[in-house]
């Protein structure tokens, strides 16, 4: 019954895309007392349509959908929108969650899930979205971070590498921001989990690594002869300041 | 397999030779009707040799006829000489013949007297009489020393009988009997050898193929079939091959159906379980404080079920997975380090530590999620069994095993260990070492099976051993890339 979270600019209206009608009813019954408004859709095509209607704060998307597969729906959503997406992946199919994050899901939850966990993840994603939209509205043009060839405009939510605009998802943006703010020094996994995923670090969770990998792919693996985003084993990540950071590897 | 080829070859060869020998004996016996006085005693071998120039050189009956002609021709010539030049000419002619022939040719008149007045052996006389009586040349076929006669007529119309002794063996010439006899024999032995060899191979090649297929099948390649080489044969081996293929298809469909069932059941369980979890959450919110304990308990059990279903799905997916996985080059050391760090985090709860004691960089080609899950499962198993307050030691080293570089990950705990007889079976799904303590460890009973399967998919292996001071040592061996480069796939670094 945590009602303290800040409401976003939009109403807390969630879109649940899952073909299990009874499950959707239960999700509604569970989440409505938590302050969410649920719209449930049971097939991919209609789900995609609704997701792109800009009427929701977040999409809960099941991987297994009749007709149009969840990944396909996500891919098409991402082609047009940056709406936060929480992917419900199939438990036991480790590949699914990685694929989901690679396509651009903000987070994933293996199904069957604990409903408390569902609520917590939804809130975490919404909080992050709220923070960034706050930043966006409150932004002055001073709110820019620039390290090496990468420039982040926190207000406009735009990332440029060597002048060229790069599309990042919400999580990736936050991840990169956290790294750039401490460029040249290590950001711990615990801290990243907190700021980027808004949840405590759990063992065997490779979400951060997947996001880091996505960032590397999008930004390029190396910068000025150094590894752009370096994994510090068991500790965290380091964004290289060209020519400086490489000394300690 | 070698010995089977050899056996069939030798047997077949010997059979050929025996059959040939028997055949020769039979031929000889057929050609010796009513010859009690010339029983086979001690003569077989000679008979064979004698016979050989005939049928085997492809010129049947040549020997005897040759000789008849010879007597006939010599007789005719002798008579011509007699009538043209008188006894003197005859004598000269016969003398000239006798240098070429061992035995003389007698020319007998009506009264069985030699024209030249030589003493005629009784046998020659008998032969001459037989000829004159129209009873054929007489004598016994293949009797080298028999007498043969030929009726000859002088131009004046006088009838004589030329009688000569059949040429004895050596008179076939310097290589006469050795050549035509040994060569065919060698030919027979060699030909029979080749035939035997061909037979041996034609029998064992399909058996070899069957065996290879059976081995593949046993190794889990359910689509292995003997194929047309064997199955199209029309003999018993072909039938065996077809039956094998039919059996393999049947087993494959059964196993596939069983796996699919397992997978489907797990999938289907997931939906009600997801609903159950939600309903539980709703109930927990509505229920009073006194129900919380029970609800927590239900939640815990539901979580166990979630975990079990997840593992079951992982395992059944791994079991139906073959070579179509996307592999990349990665450093197993990186994975070991990451998983060990995570496991250490988990182990803290039990007052334990996970220490990586040896770190070799090992580049392997593989599926990262599978390798990670293999190491993770072994490590979590170790953590759940190691005694409170002890360390789990992890080691990764690059070793050459049977000529191939391998990444060997060794994970040892300080727990109760596993009895010798269970060391292999702990990698089977749901295998429990008979021990009441086991039940409370948690875990699904599938972790090690998943690890084993993942290792197998990478062409590696997994084995367990008991440490001398107690505790379990699990070794994961994954074939490493021969030439180490630093082009490790991104995303793992």
Beta-strand segment tally of chain B: 10
Strand order in space, largest sheet of chain A: 2-1-3-4-5
Instruction: Return Rg of chain A in Å.
Output: 18 Å
> How much of the sequence of chain A is in beta strands?
15-25%
Biggest interface, CB < 8 A = A-B, 37 and 44 residues
Q: What is the alpha-carbon Rg of chain B in Å? A: 47 Å
How would you describe the shape of chain B?
rod-shaped
Q: What class, by secondary structure content of chain B?
A: alpha+beta
Cα distance, first to last residue of chain A?
A: 47 Å
Order of helices and strands of chain A: EHEHEHEHEHEEEEHEHHEEEE
Strand segment count of chain A: 14
Poorly predicted regions of chain B = 31-65, 168-180, 484-493
Description:
The complex is a heterodimer of chains A (249) and B (493). Helix content of chain A is 39%, strand content 22%. Chain A has eight helices and 14 strands. In chain A, the strands form four sheets. A five-stranded parallel β-sheet of chain A has the order 2-1-3-4-5, sandwiched between helices. A four-stranded antiparallel β-sheet of chain A has the order 6-7-8-9, with helices on one face. In chain A, helix 2 (44-51) packs parallel to helix 3 (70-80) and helix 6 (170-181) crosses helix 8 (207-219). Chain B is rod-shaped, with a radius of gyration of 47 Å. In chain B, helix 5 runs parallel beside helix 7 (236-286) and helix 10 (368-385) packs antiparallel against helix 11. A five-stranded mixed β-sheet of chain B has the order 5-7-8-10-9.
